[in-house]
């Protein structure tokens, strides 16, 4: 008979995400996600990051705003990025929005023209190592699809970085393509990724006391805008051996 861990591990492997139920405390959440790997410090050095609207970010596409967050992977400037990302819902928005949205980046890569697909493996990007908080690593220079010595593919992506040069830009940011990491091609790539995402995303309004966990080296994610500022999720980064 399959155990709950077997089922969740299989869902992670097959569809790239899984939902854990009945998680009420920080300690329960850390224990539940810890079976998939080691918890690692985030941008602020903490193992837990509170995803909740806060003053000062009203005009930015940032986790502590209520604005739409566009398609990306977490911490692309880390080497390697977290294997898994987990969100523990403490208080869900009651406004009918604030969904966490996911799509399989491997399927997106496979959908591209041969020329564009090759560029993802060959053209490197300076993935800076921090977000708006300014805390993090020095960053890495890697292609969107990095093939490791073991043959594993690690996918990095940020719509915002490719179109504005920032991870958490102002909502109305406009930048000369000459100043962008991949220039006009990066904008072309980001627009294709966004279109693919809108057609193929899975949209999850995480129930309270549930944890959504997904493969951050495979899946891209986004968030819909919301208005209920009571919304509160706790984020975890998990490093796992492949």
Automatic annotation (TrEMBL):
Sorted UniProt keywords: Antibiotic biosynthesis, Iron, Oxidoreductase
Regions annotated as coiled coil: none
Record keyword Iron present: yes
Stretches assigned to the TauD/TfdA-like domain: 12-237
Required cofactor names: Fe(2+)
Keyword Lipoprotein: no
Pfam families from the UniProt entry: TauD (PF02668)
Gene3D superfamilies according to UniProt: Clavaminate synthase-like
Name of the protein described by the UniProt record: TauD/TfdA-like domain-containing protein
Originating organism: Streptomyces gulbargensis
High-level lineage: Bacteria, Bacillati, Actinomycetota, Actinomycetes, Kitasatosporales
């Amino acid at each position: 008979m399959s155990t709950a861990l077997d089922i969740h591990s299989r869902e992670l492997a097959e569809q790239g995400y899984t939902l854990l139920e009945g998680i009420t405390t920080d300690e329960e959440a850390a224990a539940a996600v810890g079976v998939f790997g080691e918890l690692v410090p985030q941008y602020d050095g903490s193992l837990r990051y509170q995803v909740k609207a806060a003053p000062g970010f009203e005009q930015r596409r940032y986790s502590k705003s209520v604005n739409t967050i566009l398609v990306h992977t977490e911490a692309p400037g880390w080497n390697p990025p977290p294997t898994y990302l987990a969100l523990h819902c403490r208080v869900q928005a009651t406004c009918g929005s604030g969904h966490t949205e996911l799509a399989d980046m491997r399927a997106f890569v496979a959908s591209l023209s041969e020329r564009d697909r090759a560029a993802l493996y060959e053209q490197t990007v300076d993935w800076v190592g921090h977000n708006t908080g300014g805390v993090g690593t020095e960053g890495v220079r890697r292609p969107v699809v990095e093939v490791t010595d073991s043959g594993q593919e690690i996918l990095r992506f940020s719509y915002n970085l490719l179109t504005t040069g920032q991870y958490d830009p102002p909502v109305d940011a406009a930048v000369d393509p000459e100043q962008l990491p991949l220039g006009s091609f990066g904008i072309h790539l980001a627009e294709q990724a966004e279109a693919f995402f809108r057609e193929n995303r899975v949209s999850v309004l995480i129930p309270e006391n549930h944890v959504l966990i997904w493969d951050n080296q495979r899946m891209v994610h986004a968030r819909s805008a919301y208005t209920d500022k009571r919304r509160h999720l706790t984020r975890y980064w998990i490093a796992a051996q492949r």
